[in-house]
Design brief:
Elements lengths: L1 H21 L4 E6 L4 E6 L4 E7 L4 E7 L4 E6 L4 E6 L4 E7 L4 E6 L5 E6 L4 E6 L5 E6 L4 E7 L4 E6 L4 E6 L5 E6 L4 E7 L2 E6 L4 E6 L5 E5 L4 E7 L2 E6 L4 E6 L4 E7 L4 E7 L4 E6 L4 E6 L4 E7 L7 E2 L2 E2 L1
Parallel strand pairs: 4-28
Antiparallel strand pairs: 1-2, 1-29, 2-3, 4-5, 5-6, 6-7, 8-9, 9-10, 10-11, 12-13, 13-14, 14-15, 16-17, 17-18, 18-19, 20-21, 21-22, 22-23, 24-25, 25-26, 26-27
Length: 314
């Protein structure tokens, strides 16, 4: 019986190892604003596999996994590049005559949402034919945008209005406008909460969607973006060259971890349980092991790496 048990364990471990070897690597798609490219980085090998030429001054990005495409917002050329993730080539360019900054999509990937920085509006775009469905005026200089799957809300941070606007998905009706800290830029949402990084207040704001109450938490110098992973928030402190980690049970900072220069955006590599951070100042990404919170690697990615959005293909 004991020998049989040992054999079963060995078989299970072997199958697990085989599955891991055969599973495709997670890849990071990093917009490099200083060279008009997107770098594709293999997160298993830490190698840059390819650089794709896109429009001028790329910044925002969103990945539609089920459709195998990524959309990149090009600030200076005022358009969107559509990248085929199977061939890793640009297959279409969408002229907007606007300044695309933040990008996201709804749960079923039928619609893409884009913030237009200078015209203070957002675009709703059909992901099948890439036609603009509508334009919606919002607050001043909308920057970050995210989709809340629980409530089917589109949430937007308006930097120069110091506000967050929350829209319903189907009607695109303004559900609520909430004042937050000074110059909210990056925004994320999960479950009952919204999180904004307030650049000029050195803080993040937590918005509770069940009662619309807010809470402000002090972090480092010029926080740029924030995301939630499990029971913790991760915040890039762009002028401190580090990230803050916040315990969401107590809403207190528990740790700071050094990064490259001028960290801006961040996303999670779910396969390897790692945090990936784009560093604008050092033209790189930092990779942090979420098991022990150690910075395990810095990879040169491209000139002025930004990657504002969900930039990892998990």
């Amino acid at each position: 019986m004991y020998k049989f048990f040992i054999v079963i364990v060995i078989v299970i471990l072997a199958l697990g190892a085989l599955f891991t070897m055969n599973s495709p690597p997670n890849k990071a798609f990093i917009t490099n604003q200083g060279e008009d490219t997107v770098s594709i980085i293999n997160l298993d090998t830490f190698q840059v596999e390819k650089r794709i030429k896109v429009g001028k001054k790329p910044l925002g990005i969103t990945i539609l996994k089920n459709k195998s495409i990524a959309l990149v917002g090009n600030v200076e050329s005022q358009d969107l590049s559509v990248i085929d993730l199977k061939k890793n080539v640009v297959i279409k360019t969408l002229a907007l005559k606007a300044t695309p900054l933040g990008l996201t999509h709804n749960k079923d990937e039928t619609e893409i949402y884009v913030t237009d920085w200078f015209n203070s509006q957002i675009f709703v775009i059909n992901s099948m034919n890439f036609e603009i469905i509508k334009k919606i005026p919002v607050g001043k200089t909308p920057s970050g945008i995210a989709f809340n799957e629980k409530y089917s809300f589109i949430v937007i941070s308006n930097r120069d209005s110091n506000s967050v606007e929350i829209y319903t998905e189907k009607e695109m009706r303004l559900e609520k406008k909430i004042m937050v800290g000074k110059h909210p830029y990056g925004i994320s949402t999960e479950g009952d909460y919204i999180y904004t990084a307030n650049v000029y207040d050195d803080s993040i704001t937590v918005i509770n969607l069940t009662n619309w109450q807010t809470k402000e938490i002090k972090v480092g110098d010029h926080p740029y973006n924030v995301i939630k992973i499990n029971d913790q928030l991760f915040v890039t402190n762009s002028l401190d060259d580090n990230i803050s980690i916040i315990d969401t049970k107590t809403f207190t900072e528990i740790l700071k971890i050094p990064t490259g220069e001028t960290p801006e955006n961040l996303w999670v590599d779910k396969k390897n349980n790692r945090l990936v951070i784009s560093n604008w100042g050092s033209d790189s990404i930092s990779i942090i092991n979420l098991h022990d919170m150690k910075n395990i690697k810095e990879v040169k990615s491209g000139l002025q790496s930004r990657a504002f959005g969900d930039f990892i293909l998990n």
